[in-house]
Amino acid sequence: MNIGELMPDLEKLMAARPDLILTREQRDCGKSQKEKMYDHIAPTITLPFYDSWRNHLKTVAKVVDREQEAYDWLQRYDRQSTIIRDRLRNKLGDESVLVIGINRGRICVYGQRNLGAVLYEDLQLAVPKGVAEIAHCKEVTLEQLEQYEADHIVLTSYKHDGSAAMDLAIREQIDSLSARTAWQNLKAVRDGSIHSMYDSRHLYTSYNSWSHKLLLEQMERLLLSDSSKGWS
After folding, report:
1. 64-116 tens-digit pLDDT
2. Which string of b and e fits 9-47 if b means at least 16 CB within 10 Å?
């Protein structure tokens, strides 16, 4: 049930008669007046925006009385990430990996949060120059990408609205890159080390435990298999 993001439909939410409401802080502003009304509908738990995804999982688990399940899940995740990290290190060594988001006429570099939490923390992949200074993501021009030179580039979506029209726009944007000199001059492009997951919408870019597990497994497939290279 979609109740809206910036201006939630409280009547629709009230009609659902929830026992508990889980929400999160807005990144740049406090709760709206409508959001403050959540507590009048049902007990509300707010996840701090800048808290870690692991703490988010533990908080939710505690609220729904599933703390042991969360602990077990994190144990399995850490074992899995260690295995994949070792395999990637054996193949890539200190080769760096950059994630670029594509939108209609816009490009971003993904930083330390979301995908970076998996790539640069859990998998301990080498961080391209300049990426350590990006907290979440940063819009850049094509020409500015050379400032984040990397051995491998992973392409994904950026601010995808979920529409088929955006799917098409992203594909057209990616196709147009091949004719640009600034793109052709990037090391990863010259070496043929481009890996595509831009058709995933935001399956891997969300900051939560399930997305991170999926991304962990996707990185294993993309970076350990030469057949994953290419971006057409």
Report:
1. 999 999 999 999 999 999 999 999 999 999 999 999 999 988 999 999 998 99
2. ebeebeeeeeeebeeeeeeeeeeeeebeebeeeeebeeb
Q: Which residues of 192-216 are buried (b: 16+ CB within 10 A; e: fewer)?
A: ebbbbbbebbbbbbebebebbbebb
Tell me how far the alpha carbon of residue 23 is from its chain's centroid. 19
Tokens in use for 55? Answer: 């703490």
Q: Dihedral, CA atoms, 89, 94, 96, 97, nearest 10 degrees?
A: 0
- Rounded Cα distance between 4 and 143, Å, is 37
- The residue count of the chain comes to 232
Among candidate residues 97, 157, 163, the one with its CA nearest the CA of residue 124: 97
Q: What are phi and psi of 28, to 5 degrees?
A: -110, 0
CA distance 159 to 205: 10
Nearest CA-CA partner of 209 in 97, 51, 88, 89:
51
Report DSSP letters for 100-131, one per residue: EEEETTEEEEE-SSTHHIIIIIIS-PBPPTTG
> How far is C-alpha 55 from the geometric centre of its chain's CA atoms?
17
Cut 0.90: pTM above it? no
